[in-house]
Amino acid sequence: MKLYWNWKLVSFTALFLPLTISLGIWQLQRAEEKQSLEVSKVERQHPMDFSSIQRSTDKLAYQRVTLQGNFVTPYAWLLDNQVVNGRVGYDVLGLLQEYKSKGNGRLLLINRGWIPQGKTRQQMPNISHPSGLLDLQGVIHVPTGQPLVLLPDKLQQSIYPQLLQTIDMASLQQSIGLPLFDYMLRLDRNSEAVLQTHWTGPVMTSAKHMGYAWQWFGLALVLFILFIYQTVSLTAAEAVVGTGNRYD
């Protein structure tokens, strides 16, 4: 059978058919990753004692922990540009020393939650942490990527609270001159010392990734059917009139 081609359609199909299939496969891979993360998150909802964590790894993401400790003065930070229910404010961060019956416990960055901004950005809120031994519960937060930062934070060693655009553990550790646990703890809403929590999990679930994958595969199928239909129609038409480009 002698076929006749619409070369514009051939070029279009050759470009976009592999692209749509590749995007579908990529979404399936992302769905598998998110599904694994969702399963791990559910498994990590049961709280474990922070003292049982010997080393920090990214596998601690979303792990709920309990610990006792004291806030270390004068350390306090305000994480800027935090929006809750349409209002701009800050997340209040503090430095907690883990309680140990023998020796000094580890130092851990604590996110206590959100407070609203004052009438102006120049009006910095007064921050004070609860004193004494506290029983805390929260979730370990492991960053998933590098945030966009226009200007680096200028940290000073003696003035608190300090304003942060992003959380950089290495910079904080260098600023205070003390070793820090690698990841931050976000307090649960029923924990001592908590303010207003607003933590969210991954925005895109595994089900959404699966949905997007099937959309890409569906688009690829429609494109393939359209290509076959147009090629067959053109071949039939050219066979009648006896004109067109031939391909044996």
Overview of this structure, please?
It is elongated, with a radius of gyration of 28 Å. Residues 148-152 and 244-248 have low confidence and may be disordered. The protein has 248 residues and is of the alpha/beta class. The chain folds into 2 domains: 7-36 and 205-241; 63-187, no CATH class. The longest helix has 37 residues, at 7-43. Strands 2-3-4-7-5 form a 5-stranded mixed β-barrel. The chain has helices at 7-43, 169-176, 206-241; strands at 48-49, 64-84, 87-98, 107-116, 134-141, 162-164, 184-187.
Q: What are the defining features of this structure?
A:
alpha/beta, five-stranded mixed beta barrel, 248 residues, 3 helices, 7 strands
In short:
The chain is α/β, with parallel strands linked by helices.
Which SSEs are present, and which pair or pack?
Blueprint lengths: L6 H37 L4 E2 L14 E21 L2 E12 L8 E10 L17 E8 L20 E3 L4 H8 L7 E4 L18 H36 L7
Parallel strand pairs: 1-2, 2-6, 4-7
Antiparallel strand pairs: 2-3, 2-5, 3-4, 5-7
Helix pairs in contact: 1-3
